[in-house]
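User: Could you write out the 3D structure of this protein bound to LNDFFVEH? I've included everything you need below.
Assistant: Certainly. Input first, then the structure.
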Amino acid sequence: MTERSPHKQPGREAGLLVVVAVPAEADAVLRGLPAGAPAEPLPGGLLHRAVAADGTAVDVLAGGVGPAAAAAATATALAGGRYALVLSAGIAGGFAPRAPIGSLVVADAIVVADLGAETPEGFADVTELGFGTVRHVPPPGLVAAAAGALGAAAGPVLTVSTVTGSAERAAALADRHPGVLAEAMEGFGVAEAAARFGVPAGELRAVSNPVGPRDRAAWRIGEALGALERAFAALPYQRLLKEVTHG
Ligand SMILES: O=C(O)c1cccc(C(=O)CC[C@H]2O[C@@H](n3cnc4c(=O)[nH]cnc43)[C@H](O)[C@@H]2O)c1
């Protein structure tokens, strides 16, 4: 991090980086924040700079769909910016009955669900296979503060590379991940990149659809984006930063 960094503004503390997948999610997050500035292009996507009501600098990056795009985008932002915290955010599929459409979920574990191998005994994740990790655990104080302020459920959120499209797959994921609340496609990528920079990471999702048999017409993306906007208007930003900087 140097003064030559292409997207660092002198004198501006960028406390929080929010990584979403698509521009519609970035717009929803930014609608929840009172002040913004023009977006800057980064190699990882468009970086929007905003300020929360309590003065916290919040940068919002639309980094693309899927864990690889999310990891790459997050790394480009973290390489040049000063962030105390990274949040993966956006819409998600919710596991019934714990995460209904329109509800908010905060990850107490960010778990990649399909990184591993099929074996005669069933799926084995990469940790069981002896390399890598499949789980990042956000700071508990961060999870409690965010979930408490938003009235959100807290629990595991899965990252998948393929949207679940059957009751069988939904049941298999729920069996393998007790208490799972939601699945989305970016959280683990964001958390992997953040871990490499030593920056704490969390995940906040608004549920747009149930996890289960494919029914694209049943997705309530507008409702979820509305919930996302309200969440980013209500988050206690200074408290979140305090949780990750002072414990
Ligand atoms: O309908 C499809 O064929 C399809 C294939 C790939 C991606 C999509 C998306 O619209 C996902 C975009 C975005 O939304 C998140 N998301 C929302 N619901 C789910 C879900 O049930 N499972 C996984 N991801 C979901 C995800 O994080 C993506 O960024 C549609």
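The longest strand covers residues 85-94.
User: Perfect, thank you.
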